[in-house]
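Regression test attached.
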Amino acid sequence: MIETIYFEEEVFDHPTSLHVRKALPRADWFPIRSYQELFNKRHQNFRLQKKQPELILAKKNSNFVLPIPAGFGMDTSRNFYFSHMYNCLYDCKYCFLQGMYNSANFVLFVNYDDFFHSISVIKNENHDASATFFSGYDCDSLAFDKISGFADHALDFFYQHPDINLELRTKSVAVGALFKREAISNCIIAFSLSPHEISKVLDFKAPSVARRLNALKNLARHGWKIGLRFDPLIYFKGWEDQYSTLIANIMLDLFDENIHSVSFGPLRFPKKMYKKIVSHYPNDQFYAFPLEEKNGTVSYGSHLEIEMRCFLERELAKYVSEEKIFQCVLH
Amino acid sequence: MNYCNTVTMGGNEIDSLIRNRIEFCWVVALRAEAVPIIEAFNMKIFSNDLLYPIYLNQDNGHALIISGVGAIKSGAAATFLKVYLSIQNYAAWINIGIAGYFEDAKGELYQAIKVSYQDTGNTFFPGMRFSRILKSEVLRTVGKPQKDFSEPALYDMEAAGFCEISTSFSCNELTYVFKVVSDGPNHSSNLLTKKSVSNLIENQLPKIFEISDAIEKLVVVEKKRIHIPIEAQEILKTIHFSVTNRNVFINTYRRWKAKFPDKHLAVSEFAMYSPKQIINHMEKQLSSETDSWVIQ
Ligand code: SF4
């Protein structure tokens, strides 16, 4: 449980801060000038912080919405992402946030409305094409929802704007906010999944795959459009059987019409990020695997990637129509 | 153990005896504050002839330096301790002492989790919080003993100087500031004596032991992460590595050891190998395992 909340003084009375106060009544609050003075400071130890992260409440002032980075997936003509939060409650061993930030503390930007305003502006500028706005690039979209109350705000906004899409990407089963309302046709709940055998080792603190499947199937029954994300694909002995079983289990009582899209992508890291992440786990078997570096990206290499891609495509094609399947490619 | 004998040894001998053992570095302004800590952790004087008095117990891994009063002295003493004993990067750095407080809480122990330096405006956020053991507070490091406690904070004269330097020795999460309230609006610091200062610290020893147990757990984690195993150190001592190859070797060795915990790199076997050949040897073994890679 979060024990310490640092807050920029100007957001102390913001409605989101009040929501957080109710959700974390026992936490101690300490004022700061700006979130950067804490979040960006030098000599932080990500792994030790991850044992007991603190929450920073801040106001975002610019860059609310950005074009998605190459290889994020989904072939929508206009893709953008926004991050109302940095860092994640969970602690997946392969998480690239560990290589991106110096700090494992959570930053929650409380001014959700400013994000939505920016989305409106982009929507008006791009009225000729349908745009998708991804949440969950710098965090898990729903894991923190009981504290942040973000999903309700986002869904209210996108309900009013049916011509643009929202993707909430998650491993969370904190989907209460979604059950409390009618499904919204322009909102995709995308679950990140991997076989149970590796998820139980790598997806530390995240809900089990079985619980995620349960949540996603209940949401599908409730009418929500579901995204399936196999990203990153992890290579290990017996991976074909394990992925095949996982996909079969997902599809057991999920139908093509429930599925908005399926995407998959190989394990990959920008070189600098990889070096930083490995320094967090120098003695870990997962990062002992001999990866290859090519054009500034560290990955399994084209041989294994093609093998995995072909296999996934074949398996998915058994259940899902081809136009819904996307590959997150290396750039 | 007679530490005065130890100091007469050459620098390398001090190094090999001590550098791997020290896990707690206490930086304390006054002797009266230091005495209860020195006694509690059975430290002995290392040398009286140094710039700052240093106390040690290499069996339990505690070292303490008495800095004198003031932020600059605190930072300088921490640096001296780090360099003189070649303290490793996984050690915890702890500043403990007395402080003024805006409320009447004489004798209470606080963890300072936000430290601001009045002189520079710099702010530090040392440590991980131990909220189950003690309360936390913000602290202002000031240049003179404080009479005006208008801001809701602790007031000391060292912590910011200590934080400025010590966070770079290991990391922010292994840098700690603890203060016992000695004075405030209703308790003048003029009435403090050496004895009363020592008593204030001594009365908090049960909590200080709890804190050191909690810190030790974090040090163990960090030590495990960055410590270079003896076997790899032996290879590095025997075979000449360039700086780049040294780093590649250490990283490859760690990956190799993670995959093959029961295998060994005996110096005798590899004495005739070049650094590149040793690295390739390990990479080859790792590559030969990819088909049967297990994640556990
Ligand atoms: S759920 Fe996603 S964001 Fe959270 S730790 Fe795992 S990979 Fe990172």
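Expected vs. actual: identical. The pocket of iron/sulfur cluster is lined by residues A 88, 90-92, 95, 97, 139-140, 171, 206 (CB under 6 Å).
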